[in-house]
Amino acid sequence: MKKSKTIPIILCTILLVAAAIYYYLPVKINKEISACSLDGDQIKLVLDVSWHRSLLKPTELRGKIGIDNNEYLSLLDTSAQINKYSFWEGLKMKVKGERYIPPWFVVSDKDLMDMDKITLSPFDKNFNLVEIHVYVEKPYDSYEVPIYYGPANTAQEADKVMRQIHHKE
After folding, report:
1. pLDDT of 61-73, one tens digit each?
2. Which one is predicted more confidently, 137 or 102?
């Protein structure tokens, strides 16, 4: 009688361990997206990112984004010490089903304040609609910030994506 109880317990334990391992595996996204500004400037995004899940904090975006010949790293993958959220804020975000996207993707983890950087706003977890702000440093400590929308190859397509993202008719 004792053996018959231990087999289901062992099977349940194995199943729970397998489910936990699967849950903690990063969900990779490798994708190329054509994006365009409302002025018609085009860029090609090469995403090599992944969603990292956790039990007590929100799912976080990590990885690299290529634009033209530049590669941008998630701040979470650099040596930067950023204040993301407190434990309780993270737990609230997790309960609400929110994802954490770092505020910046940067060219490298050196000199984080003095470089070109981007912000990325995916509007679903598979990056079917994206908005990218590219901060390009200009003389006299100023930035030019073109905004690109994707997927789009023309200014008209970018406008359509922008309207979908921002719910404008």
Report:
1. 999 999 888 888 8
2. 102
Give how far Cα 19 sits from Cα of 25, 29, 146, 157, Å: 10, 21, 43, 41
C-alpha 51/C-alpha 31 separation (Å) is 14
Give residue 11's Cα distance to chain centre.
36
Give the E-state strand segments of 94-161 in sequence order: 99-100, 105-106, 117-122, 130-138, 142-144, 147-150
Q: Indicate the burial class of 141 (C-beta count within 10 angstroms; 0-12, 13-18, 19 or more).
A: exposed
pLDDT classification of 1: cutoffs 50, 70, 90:
very low
Residues paired with residue 51 on neighbouring β-strands, in sequence order: 27, 61
Residues in the chain: 169
In whole angstroms, what is the distance from residue 161 CA to residue 63 CA? Answer: 24
- Answer yes or no: are the C-beta atoms of 137 and 127 closer than 8 Å: no
pTM for this entry: 0.80
The residue that leads in pLDDT, 111 or 120, is 120
